[in-house]
Design goal:
- With about 250 residues, the chain is of the alpha/beta class.
- It folds into two domains: about 180 residues, Rossmann fold, CATH 3.40.50.300; about 70 residues, no CATH class.
- A six-stranded mixed sheet has the order 6-7-8-3-9-10. Strands 2-1-4-5 form a four-stranded antiparallel sheet.
- Helix 4 crosses helix 5.
- The two termini are about 35 Å apart.
């Protein structure tokens, strides 16, 4: 049965994402390993969804498929009514450019400034805004207004992740995918990054998917999707739930 936990009444501006029996395999030596198996769910516009599970559960694969960075072996992924598996190469590239990605390892260009890193995705594009101005506005939004000219390699891990978030927003995405965005950070900095992501989501109305193995991060979201060995094993609506109670419930004993 398709999972549709937490369907809102409507009126949000984020993207709607639908997966129908999505399967993805990969080669590991001579063996074929299933990364995702028959996953079906609907993610509603403007939802903040935590995708959880142990290492190897399929979290990163799910985000990569939704973002158009990879294609499934079977099944369909539909974003705002468009089957992204049927797009031409040119339109696939355009779709990927419309999605915001935040990665655990930041993927900044170390020899470029914070500002240049933020605007890199839009440099070759014709856009209806001033690129430098938008980049500075985004750096201000993530608390780095005074770091625009600093080289990426000279920033702390938390600052680099903030730059990565600003970069992910430069195209004004309706869909933001964050793969373990706090995984390389200490707990305090991780909390700051999570707060920043949820604040920006609230401001812009994006649909936000967070892949995480951290129960604390998951408890702050509106919905919890659980993967195990590539299969969807749980889907909980956390809307209105107390984060502390949710954390105790999903962390288990101990």
């Amino acid at each position: 049965m398709e999972s549709t936990a937490g369907a809102p009444a409507g009126g949000r501006t984020g993207a709607r994402v639908e997966l129908a029996s999505v399967t993805k395999t990969r080669r590991q030596g001579r063996a074929t390993v299933t990364s995702l198996a028959e996953v079906s769910l609907t993610i509603w516009p403007g939802q903040i969804v935590a995708v959880t599970g142990p290492s190897g559960a399929g979290k990163s694969t799910l985000l990569q498929l939704i973002g158009g960075l990879d294609i499934p072996d079977s099944g369909r992924i539909v974003v705002d009514g468009v089957d992204i598996g049927r797009l031409s190469s040119r339109h696939s590239a355009y779709f990927r450019g419309s999605v915001g990605f935040v990665f655990q390892r930041y993927h900044l260009l170390n020899n470029l400034s914070a500002l240049d890193n933020v605007i890199t995705p839009v440099l070759p594009l014709r856009v209806d805004f001033d690129k430098q101005e938008r980049g500075r506005d985004l750096l201000a939004a993530v608390g780095l207004a005074d770091q625009a000219g600093v080289l990426a390699r000279e920033l702390s891990g938390g600052q680099q992740q903030r730059v990565a978030i600003a970069r992910a927003l430069v195209n004004r995405p309706r869909l933001l995918l964050a793969d373990e965005p706090t995984g390389n950070l200490d707990s305090r900095t991780g909390e700051e990054i999570l707060d920043l992501l949820t604040e920006l989501q609230a401001e812009h109305g994006m649909t936000l998917l967070l892949a995480t193995h951290d129960s604390t991060v998951a408890s702050q979201c509106q919905r919890l999707v659980e993967l195990l060995d590539g299969r969807l094993v749980g889907d909980r609506d956390l809307t209105g739930a107390d984060p502390d109670s949710t954390l105790r419930r999903i962390s288990g004993p101990g």
